[in-house]
Amino acid sequence: MIRRALHTLLSASLLALVACATQPSKPPSAKTPASSPPLAETSVESNPADASVDLTPVEFAVARADFVRDTAKRFGIDAGYIDRVLAQAVYRDDVVALMSKPAERVKPWNEYRARMLTDARIASGREFFATHRAELQRVYQRTGVPGEIITAIVGVETSYGGFTGKHRVLDALYTLAFYYPRSGDPAKAAYEQRRELFFRDELAQLFALAREEKLDILSVTGSYAGAMGMGQFMPSSYREFAVDGDGDGRRDLFDDYDDIFSSIANYFVKKGGEQGGWVRDGVVAAQAALLPGHEEFNPTDWLPVYTLEDLAARGYRPLQPVAAGLTATPVTLQASDGKQYWFGFRNYYAITRYNNSKMYAMAVYQLSQAILGQELPPA
Ligand SMILES: [Ca+2]
After folding, report:
1. Which residues are catalytically annotated?
2. CATH assignment of 12-105+164-222, given 1.20.1250.20, 3.40.50.80, 1.10.8.420, 1.10.8.350?
3. Ion ligand 1 — residues with CB under 5 Å?
4. For residue 8, what pLDDT is reported?
5. Which of 26, 153, 342, 365 is most buried (most C-beta within 10 Å)?
6. What residues of the chain score a pLDDT lower than 70?
């Protein structure tokens, strides 16, 4: 989830022009969980809250001054300090360009999986899993989240820590907080406004996080969307879900494996609301068949709320034994030889909370199985 880096400092007035001149197309994922950069599959969702988003233009100087005042008050941080740090933040063209990149065409599952589950990623995953077996086992015992799932997450997010992001997080969040790209499409205006406010909140949380974890706000790096460390946590997720796994008094998601693994597991356990939260030793997904004469059922939120009886009534039948009493969501994937159907259980839903995409969740699950040495199902 990492991209290039580099250049340009512009004056505020020039920035406004640049921001207006940018012609991005489809904005990415509407939700931004632990990690943030969008996957092409995720689409913009209509949100009833759109109506309440204030679209009145606000001058940069006013928005900045409000931000300084509000953040100082909210976190008890000296306003002068916030102002001085912001004065060193740099608007990044490359961040805007990456954020406004047209969404790729939605890949079919077989192509997506081939890209995500390369032989190299599987091999590195097995190596990583073996190297960190002891720490991962401890985390599993404490939280119920298996080591192979944690390994698969760091595998898809950062290639096991190889690519954690070279963008200065301060610059990335500053850019998206005040110059979030606008498409000019009225249908997307509310969405884009909400995204800008989301990043403005993340920028504020970065100030709080830096103080709490003694990070150097001027040097910490991450993805172009401001996600940090091996598991790519946004500042708000870092503050809310990170855990001090080794008990040294700090939550270090950059270099400390105990902290990194414990934090990813904690995110799985805590995030997800009433439906979510990782279930110890729970099944993730099971392949299914759709009997002839039945229509596909494709709920878009992947909430695992349908009983096996509900699904049977809609023509779905699991292709492997599934414990009675479980609830699931049906998942349709476009495979190389036609449609593939799955039941996604509560732990599948928990993976979608990390990144709101059905293919992401399936890829993480299948990578975790491959890391254990299991043969992948056909794609
Ligand atoms: Ca620690």
Report:
1. 157
2. 1.10.8.350
3. 244, 246, 248, 250, 256, 259
4. 28
5. 153
6. 1-51
